[in-house]
Amino acid sequence: ILEDGTQLVLNGGSALHIAYGAQQRRLRLIEGEMLIATAADARAFIVETAAGQAQALGTRFVVRADDDGSTRVSVFEGAVRLRPRESPGAAQVLQAGQQAVFGAQRISAPTPVHEESTAWVDGLLIARGMPLGEMLQALQPYSEAALVCAPEVAGLRMSGSYPLDD
Question: N or C: more exposed end of the chain, with fewer CB within 10 A?
Answer without folding.
Answer: C
